[in-house]
Design brief:
The structure is a homodimer of 285-residue chains. By secondary structure, the first copy, chain A, is of the alpha/beta class. Chain A is built from 10 helices and 11 strands. Chain A has 2 domains: 91 residues, Rossmann fold; 126 residues, NAD(P)-binding Rossmann-like Domain (Rossmann fold, 3-Layer(aba) Sandwich). The longest helix of chain A has 21 residues. Chain A is globular and about 50 Å long. Chain A starts with a strand and ends with a helix.
């Protein structure tokens, strides 16, 4: 039986810390505030938004919902992003992506002040993660994996970590974050050959590809720590599953994050912690 | 006997291509021009500068030498960098680093237009390499390794590549460049455990740490391709050597870059190719 690395206690601990910091900021007259920019009514955006709002409320972070139609004019959208970014009362911005087709993702993201880029999508944030400097923020999902490792006392330094997936939202930034913690990091992807041979030899395996139950028993070995960032709808089983075939991997490894209830459940807590940190930084604390 | 992956033919081929492109630009009234910003008279800066100037001359790229004393006032330095960056007659900028202590490296680099950042040190260039988009340029030394692989027909896609070193000048950008070419990349460093076990299993090993003859026979296995980015003064042998103990590794591997005469000898050719590309991009070709 592997130890389950559940996300809830991690999120709870992080939330508790945020609550204290938010209270300190309020004593100084600062109400940490997150703007959520959304185009249209995508169900998964709405679901994440509800979670984020609930988390913010529980901590004492205000939320401003900036909602535009899916067919918003580019000029209007960019002007809105700029206005939100320039607003001194807003400390963090979450902009749902992918954006509608008529909008240019790079133009949109670069209108944001990197100091308010709490989901780590601007050039400033990417450079911060890449160069290991305190500039901008890491993407919340990538940071959530690190928070789980920290909470459960999993040391990364000197460990052989294999990461499957190289997206800009999870794979690449997480590779950098793990490298910054002195792990020896191997980045695998669709072109990787003999993947099970590579993953089986690792001490830590992180999957982030979004293909339900792709990685079965043959990818794992005894004593490993497995973190599953993937979460997608499994048509066959009619439920949400991770990239890892949990029933097969769990008996093999020593620790594993469940899906749901693992990495995903820490993401909004990280988001809120970033808003608090942004409010601190922007006010010179 | 391993095949020697010499840098000279790679540099020559790249230079020849650059010569043609420079001629095309000149027909359009554009003289591709590189500005070299240097503080003081560091011998290794001067040596690299001479090499770069010679290479530029052979291609038809003009060079403007911008030399300031080592104790230059920060205001004067920053103003000079900005002036050089704003000069429409300059297409590429090479700024020798590390800068003197009184100067802030980040301030200085960000004064450069990323479109002219031919040695890939600005945030714009780093993001370009990290996100695999045509923005700015990769650091010349990292790109030189890729040029060698390309010239000798060494396919990276699907290969297991191990990189030792994680600097921003070579290790990290090269990891990204190799990942962009679909290699499975493992990034190793001082905290990596059982390094020989890791390197021996790779198909490609790239060393970039700057410790003379650190990696002997025990790090290599038959059939491997080894590229040595390190070049440092070997006190014992009173000569320049790479990170790889060449005499030990060469009989084991199938292909290897010599030091000197390997990666280092391609760097200025890459620099010149970046100046040409910058001149093309800045003029909309």
């Amino acid at each position: 039986m592997a130890e389950l690395l559940k996300g809830k206690p991690v999120a709870d601990a992080l939330t508790e810390k945020c609550r204290e910091k938010a209270a300190e900021l309020k004593e100084k007259g600062i109400v940490p505030t997150l703007a959520i920019i959304r185009c249209g009514e995508d169900p998964s955006d709405l679901s994440y938004e509800r979670g984020a709002m609930k988390r913010c409320e529980s901590v004492g972070v205000e939320v401003r919902n900036v909602v535009m139609p899916r067919d918003v004019e580019p000029e209007e959208f960019y002007a809105t992003v700029k206005k939100v970014s320039d607003d001194p009362g807003i400390h963090g911005i979450l902009m749902f992506r992918p954006l509608p087709k008529q909008l240019d993702a790079i133009t949109a993201r670069e209108l944001m002040n990197p100091d308010k880029d709490v989901d780590g999508c601007t050039q400033g944030s990417m450079t911060g993660v890449y160069t290991n400097t305190k500039q901008g923020f890491a993407p919340c999902t990538a940071q959530a994996v690190i928070e789980i490792f920290d909470y459960y006392g999993i040391e990364l330094s000197g460990k052989n970590a294999v990461l499957i997936g190289r997206s800009l939202v999870v794979g690449k930034p997480l590779a950098m974050l793990m490298l910054n913690r002195n792990a020896t990091v191997t980045i695998c992807h669709t072109r990787t050959k003999d993947l099970p041979e590579i993953t089986k030899k690792a001490e830590i395996v992180v999957t982030a590809i979004g293909v339900p139950e792709k990685f079965g028993a043959e990818y794992f070995s005894e004593g490993q720590i497995a973190a599953d960032v993937g979460i997608s709808w499994n048509e066959t089983k009619q439920k949400l599953t991770g990239d890892i075939f949990f029933e097969e991997a769990e008996p093999v490894v020593s620790k594993i994050t469940p899906v749901p209830g693992g990495v995903g459940s820490v993401t909004t807590a990280v988001l809120v912690s970033h808003v608090i940190e942004a409010a601190q930084r922007l006010n010179g604390f």
